[in-house]
Write a structure and sequence with these properties.
This protein is an alpha+beta fold. Helices cover 26% and strands 43% of the residues. Strands 1, 2, 3, 4, 5 and 6 form a six-stranded antiparallel sheet that branches. The longest helix is centred in the last third of the chain and has 10 residues. The model has no long low-confidence stretch (mean pLDDT 90).
């Protein structure tokens, strides 16, 4: 899935405790600048998801959050961490 970049989401600022969810940033999607940074279209766990492999939705995501609470990962690792994300992506095709 070359049109996405995958980021593992962490529940702490030191990137030690994985939330068990992945954010997929849509590279071909729209982006815009607003107060607080650049926002990208992405697929991510529903807001306030407290459990691994949470259901996903599509929304705009602040890129600063990616730098503070996420780490870029491979698609293979993303598939292991968050299978529901890929179920959703497959349903879009």
């Amino acid at each position: 899935m070359r049109e996405y970049r995958f980021f593992e989401e962490f529940s702490d600022g030191r990137l030690e405790s994985s939330s068990g969810n992945v954010i997929a940033v849509d590279l071909a999607g729209d982006s815009f600048v607003q107060e607080g940074g650049v926002c990208y279209r992405a697929l991510c766990a529903v807001q306030d998801a407290a459990r691994p492999n949470s259901p996903v939705l599509q929304r705009y995501f602040n890129a600063e959050y990616l730098g503070a609470r996420c780490r870029r990962i491979t698609e293979a690792r993303a598939r292991k961490i968050h299978p529901k994300l890929f179920e959703y992506l497959d349903s879009l095709a």
